[in-house]
Amino acid sequence: MLIPHPLLGPRDAQEFTYLGDASLLSRPDPDAPDAVDAFCDYVFLRDNPAGVHKELWYHEQGDRSWLVVIRNTVTHEVLGAELATDVMRAKGAT
Amino acid sequence: MTDLIPITALGTAAAETTRIGQYELHENTGLALASLSCADDVKPFGLALPEPGKMTQDPQRRSAIWMGQGLWLIAAQDQADSDFAHSLGEELGPTFAAKITEQTDAWVAFDIKATSEGDIQAVLERLVNLPFSATGPGCAVRTLVHHLSVFILRPNRQEITFLGLRSYAESLHHVLEASLRK
Amino acid sequence: MTRLSGGLIDRSAPLNFTFNGKSYQGFAGDTLASALFANGVRLVGRSFKYHRPRGIVSAGSEEPNGLVTLGHGARQTPNTRATMVPLFEGLEARSQNHIGPLGFDMMAVNDLAAPLLSAGFYYKTFMWPKAFWEKLYEPAIRRAAGLGALSGQPDPDEYDRGYLHPDVLIIGAGAAGLIAALLAGRAGVDVVLADEDARMGGRLLAEGGVLNDTPAPDWVAGVLAELASLPNVRLMPRTTVFGVYDHGIFGAVEQGADPLIGPRETLWRITAKQAILASGATERHIPFANNDRPGILLSGAMRAYANRWAVTPQGAATDRIAIFTNNDDGHRTALALRALGQPVFAVIDTRNDARSLGDYTTHEGAVVSDTMGRKGLRAIEVTQGDRSTWYECGVLGVSGGWNPNVHLASHHRGRPHWDENRLCFLSEDAPQGLHIAGAAAGQGSTEAALKSGLSAARAALKTLGVKVPRMTLPQANSEPDQISAFWHVPSRSRAWVDLQNDVTVKDLKLAHQENMAPVEHLKRWTTLGMATDQGKTANVTALAVMAELTGKTIPETGTTIFRPPYTPVSLGVLGGGDTGVHFRPRRLTPTHHWADARGAVFVEAGAWMRAQYYPTPGETHWRETVDREAAAVRAGVGICDVTTLGKIDVQGADAGAFLDRIYANMMGTLKPGKVRYGLMLREDGQLYDDGTCACLAEGHYVVTTTTANAGLVLQRMEFASQCLWPELDVSLISTTDAWAQIAIAGPKSRELLARFVDDFDLSNDAFPFMGCAALTICKGLRARLFRISFSGELAYELAVPARYGHAVMARLMEEGADLGVTPYGTEALGVLRIEKGHATANEITGQTTAAMLGLGRMVSAKKDSIGAVMSRREGLVDETRRLVGFVPVDADDPVVAGAHLFAPDAPQDLAHDQGWITSACYSPHVGSMIGLGYIESGADRTGEEVIAANPLEGQHIRMKITSAHFVDPEGERLRD
After folding, report:
1. Are B105 and C803 within 8 A, CB to CB?
2. If I label C729, which of A10, C17, C317, C400 is the partner at 20 to 30 A Cα–Cα?
């Protein structure tokens, strides 16, 4: 597979390490009253859709950036990739 | 000056040059390196910090290499025995000094010189899963070479530098040497 | 026995070769197959199951029969298709799968036992008694039925690999591929043209036609010359594209140009923006009784042998030739051979309206219904209506139509669809960016192939956004092929469908009767389409026969789905060529060569090679060495390379705040010049890694990790920095390789170190336990010093630039000789840490909590950190197992890591399991073996006796629970 790195262009998937569901970006508030429950969901429950999925890929053998990649898990079509830092900053901005 | 005598990454007393056909493979033991983490508005030694995948260099072959978001590797020839991170900190001043990490001994640098660009291409296509155009002069890309993480620096058309982790020097040297022989 | 005139062989370059020890001669340009034919050798092997005499049936990579072993000794290569081996001087080939000479195979008795070896016989017979399978049946079957044998020796050949990134990859250099390459090449894009054949041109080399009045081979030569002159075009003959992967990535194997020089094979990973599949078509045969005799070939292959290699498969020049066909292409072979003056006496055509296209007899509405000739065809029986006649015949060409090679187009699960007009499967949903052209797209005539090749190239160039140059196509043969469905000649004798796996029409019938009709079942029940040819000449025919048997249409019966590889790929080339010490990269410590010179024994720790122990003369057992090393550290001073522990430089205004979130304990409060032990948790609350964190200056920390987790901890820290808290100003970089780090441990370590430091006060007050400093040693070498201890003794870790590690180690030995300085390896390191009760990966398993290590209070409740919330879950909080020490009640008893712990009188089962021993060693300090381990309520059970059970070795050993700190439990030594 080729991962379209937002800064470096298409790079072979061999350069990357796969983590999985990008919901890991949404770490729950540790001070919330239901924090343990929220963390249980965060740590143990993942979506595993047959179809379009947002995933985390780490460019370990490259610039060491974490990417959010939108990929169809059935066809392996990659619909887009963003730097996780950009995604987080955009989240922070809203 | 210390009386301790350093060794090369390959474990020899002095850097060796191997000639293989039209190629020359040489361990560059003089390269001083330090990483610099900052926004791209400083000019270490007057070098503009390069864009992703690129390097910039001056006539003294001091260079700045893009490592990652907000992170550069600053390199200088023949200064490995200086306290390079310290000099870089002096040069940039206290604001940046705390964003510099000594990297000279973290890496091993192998330079390959060839007689033509075609020879460089022949080596690269056996080692690197990137289009040749992505490793053109001025490029500095980090990728995998035979399971080894390396920087590929292209100062000019007939030369290429492989920057690998120092502890993997022997394996990287084998990979490069075997590839040049094929 | 005949060489014809013409052909594309170089008669001025004779080449000598041997087959089964006998010497023969061929010419440059020959394949092994054509050279064998030229020498009248028709019998080349024995069939897989029945050991029937077999000859070559094709002229390409689809060859099911002509499998030979090349070379000898370590270079022996089995299962090589004779049709794909370019002849070279000195080539040695041997036939396979027979006992005794090829002409008199002892295993041919299997042919008489055929009724026992029908479809599914593997599953039906040899079932009883069960024990016989492994010892008797399987070895016997493997010996009797099989392919060639490996040499059993290490492969001495060289392999290579490489990567290409063309704009357009063109697979197949026949008419369609060549014209596509020419257009793309002239358009200026980067082109790779790959063909499995040593000579490019595809069927154009096999047909006698002309393009614009130029003989096809000359036209090919002209195109290749232009392509070779274009710097943007790379011609790759002998290169098989074997697999299609995601996003335009292709796998290809290039055979070495010279069998003796350079890599034998190169694995290419080709990433192409666009690709054109012009892989041609494979002819299929028509099963009839005894259709597997040497001398029966595919008709198109016969044409190729005649036109390209100037040979026929005749045993003798007088052997008469016939063609059996259901289409016009069979007649083309008859014409070609007639034109070369060959004795073609008949074309047997299944079509009632068939007519001769030249000077030969045509039997219309007729079939070949049987044959004779054990080791080579002698006669055929032709049946027309109810009249059967035997004819003397030495060579029979069979044409059942052509199957487009759509394999690569369906590597992404694309299902080929049945084309009722062309009677073949065509690809419908090829992967994105893959254009199919030529015979692979059912466009078999030269003109149609050129046209479709051109339009595929146009489409590819348009997608690339490149201006398409104008090009006019040469005039070429455009006869459409008429074909009528005819799949097999019914018979009571065996008619082979799959020649390689000995699958007959009878086997298909039996499979049908036994309800193994679905294609997937059919394949496994009969072994149809397995082994090296993967049914290239068999699958579609089998499907059609099965359709006939079930009364269904072909599409209803099924379709074949193809998976990589297209043709067999050697494991050697997939391995990439690195063997022995270079099989995988290894990391050497800065003192590796020093240790090596001292005769150290090394151990692999991940990729690292670490000194395990340093034997001295007279030591005969590793334990002797390790005991000496460990004792030397406790009594005097030892030195050990600990560079492999991960080091991560953490800098930035928010570095302290960041580390507070990474570590479970407080780290942000650490002052410059101080080191603190830290625990990292996983987000689920379990322990992840431990190590030290040193504060070198305000906002500058060095985090150390365990050797195994060095990369992973950095990855997690990058994740935290980029994905969880990007607002924190922190930068991370590994410095593991930058510093040679040497542990100097033992009561005399300060004394030794004092001889090294430049103007640095090492006194306990000035540089206490858990202190750190940047300093210089040996008159000016920059260094870092950490006062930390893994052994429990007064100890330091000294870091110097990696290139000086060797010199510092040597100097420490020199300067410390009078102090008895002793280098120690990982084994003694392990003994020292077990004696001190320090945890490593044996204890931090991913299922242990900080509390289990007795460090529960380190997990700060005052701040958030990774894993903090989840560590407060009930299940983790209620955990009572604690790390304790164990000594055997009888000092001579062993302690085994992994043993489980039980109360002395309790049954030894899961329900009564109280814990386990994590680490064990012989302790020179205690004088017996000792262990660390987790046990329920361990905090309160000191002095109690338990049983350590190791059922694998029948051990049940009485243990006494002790403190985990066998040495200096109060920790006075390291603070001294």
Report:
1. yes
2. A10
* Neighbouring C-beta atoms of residue C261, cutoff 10 Å: 8
**What integer is the mean pLDDT of C397-422?**
93
Mutate to test the interface with B, among A3, A5, A15, A58 (most CBs of B within 10 A): A15
Shortest CA distance from B9: residue in chain C: C803
CB contact under 8 A, A7 and B134: no
Q: Is residue C927 part of a domain?
A: yes
Q: Which two tokens stand for residue B36?
A: 């610099």
Question: Any CB–CB contact under 8 A between B83 and chain C?
Answer: yes
Whole-angstrom Cα distance, residue C347 to residue C364?
Answer: 8
Contact flag A2-C715 (C-beta cutoff 8 Å): no
Q: Would you list the domain boundaries of chain B? A: 17-181
Do residues C666 and C780 share a domain?
A: no
CA C48/CA C503 separation, integer angstroms:
10
Residues of C in contact with A24 (CB under 8 A): 723
ipTM score: 0.98
Task: Please list the residues that pair with C745 across neighbouring strands.
Answer: C638, C795
Interface residues of A toward C, Cβ cutoff 8 Å, are 1-2, 10, 12, 17, 19, 24-25, 27-28, 30-31, 35-36, 39-40, 42-44, 56, 58, 60, 64-66, 76-78, 83-85, 88-89, 92
Residue ending a domain, choose from C702, C734, C766: C734
pLDDT tens, per residue, chain B with 182 residues: 899 999 999 999 999 999 999 999 999 999 999 999 987 788 888 999 999 999 999 988 899 999 999 999 999 999 999 999 999 999 998 877 678 999 999 999 999 999 999 999 999 999 999 999 999 999 999 999 999 999 999 999 999 999 999 999 999 999 999 999 98
Q: What's the pTM?
A: 0.94
Record: fold of B17-181: Gyrase A; domain 2 (3.30.1360)
| Residue whose pair of structure tokens reads 């950009």 in the numeric block | A86
Domain for residue C872, yes or no?
A: no
Q: What is the domain extent for residue A11?
A: 2-93
What is the number of structural domains in chain C? 7
**Structure-block tokens of residue C864:** 């958030």
Q: Which domain holds residue C114?
A: 1-154
Are both C202 and C264 inside the same structural domain?
yes
Is some CB atom of chain A closer than 8 A to the CB atom of B129? Answer: yes
C685 and C667 in a common domain: yes
State whether the Cα torsion C634-C637-C641-C647 is positive or negative: positive
CB contact, 8 Å: C605 with chain B? no
- The DSSP-derived string for C399-452 is E--EEE--GGGGTTSPPPEEETTTTEEE-SSPPTTEEE-GGGGT--SHHHHHHH
Domain shared by C27 and C121, yes or no: yes
Asked if residue C146 and residue C25 are part of one domain, the reply reads yes
